[in-house]
Specification:
The protein is α/β, with parallel strands linked by helices and about 220 residues long. The chain has two domains: about 120 residues, 3-Layer(aba) Sandwich (Rossmann fold); about 90 residues, Arc Repressor Mutant, subunit A, CATH 1.10.10. The chain is about 40% helix and about 20% strand. The strands form three sheets. A five-stranded parallel β-sheet has the order 2-1-3-4-5, with helices on both faces. A four-stranded antiparallel β-sheet has the order 6-7-8-9, covered by helices on one side. Strands 10-12-11 form a three-stranded antiparallel β-sheet. Strand 3, helix 3 and strand 4 form a beta-alpha-beta unit. The longest helix has 15 residues. The protein is elongated, with a radius of gyration of 18 Å.
Length: about 220
């Protein structure tokens, strides 16, 4: 999954980027509200983490603009403003949640997971197809009784496919949700990672992760 962090404090932005990447997310960072809005126009995100006190265009303005554009992506506001009135303003501007600074990274992650569960209508943090069982909380994948040793990128690709079972997932969708803005669009990295993933989950004949010629891939849960 892919997250956009809009934060002008370089030290905090770097901390969030590092922590979120450690959790397996693809992460882009914008220093201003204007830059953040440009990125949301160019890429698809699963969630936004937006600071209120941004230069020129503040975080509340960003929220309002994105909602006026009919963008439903979950927004988590971070702010040093701690009053009830401030939280109300943030939620009324279009944010889905509000966390005050300083915060513990573990709480931030818990709020992110809650927003993503709500967005994807996930009741349990486990996904499955055939012999595959994915525990998204503990970031483990079991193939039958055997644990699959997946890299963060492979895990992210498999998670995205599991969340879209029996649907064709285009290479562009995988690029948008699994990689960040530094991804080389002209490369064949999606195909390379799909091949590696098939090998690790025992799908060497490509029956589970099917190639849909000219379109992308489909994870079929009836095998």
């Amino acid at each position: 999954m892919r997250i956009l962090v809009i934060e002008d404090d370089n030290q905090l932005a770097a901390f969030l980027e590092h922590g979120l990447k450690e959790e397996g997310f693809a992460v882009d960072v914008a220093e201003t509200g204007e830059e953040g809005e440009e990125l949301t126009s160019a890429y698809e995100y699963d969630l936004l983490v937006v600071d209120i006190m941004l230069p020129l265009m503040n975080g509340l303005d960003v929220c309002r603009d994105l909602r006026q554009r009919k963008m439903s992506t979950p927004i988590l506001i971070t702010s040093g403003q701690r009053s009830v009135e401030d939280r109300i303003r943030g939620l009324d501007a279009g944010a889905d949640d509000y966390i005050t600074k300083p915060f513990i990274f573990g709480e931030l992650m818990a709020r992110i997971r809650a927003l993503l569960r709500r967005e994807h209508s996930i009741i349990q943090p486990k996904l499955s197809a055939g012999l595959i069982i994915m525990d998204t909380m503990n970031r483990e994948v079991m193939i039958g009784e055997n644990k699959a040793d997946l890299t963060k990128r492979e895990f992210a690709i498999l998670e995205y496919l599991l969340r879209h079972q029996n649907k064709v997932v285009t290479r562009t969708s995988l690029e948008q949700h699994v990689w960040d803005q530094d991804f080389d669009i002209g490369s064949n990295m999606v195909d390379v990672y799909i091949r590696r993933l098939r090998q690790k989950i025992g799908d060497r004949d490509a029956r589970l992760i099917e190639t849909v010629r000219g379109a992308g891939y489909r994870l079929a849960n009836d095998h």
